[in-house]
User: Fold this.
Amino acid sequence: MANNTTKSLINKTKKYLKEKNLSFINVNDSHNLMVLKASGEYHYLVIQFFEMPEKWMYQRRHFNIKTAYAIDYQQLTNAINRYLDA
Assistant:
């Protein structure tokens, strides 16, 4: 389960995505997020705060999904911007 620091990072990331007018959804019941915008060779961007369910990844094996691992807020915003610029 998410601790307060992780919850804060998740909320800040959601706010950032909303400010950029990017649609996103939660991955299943996890706190991981999937940005619903294709960029470059990728169909989606998954922002991974916690380990992704293998079954979920397997079901989407036909899509090219970029993963950004949540380390800190600055790193995440840089990863999102690099994804959008690709």
Observations:
- The mean pLDDT is 93.
- The longest strand covers residues 44-48.
- Strands lie at 24-26, 33-35, 44-48, 65-69.
- Helices lie at 4-19, 54-59, 73-85.
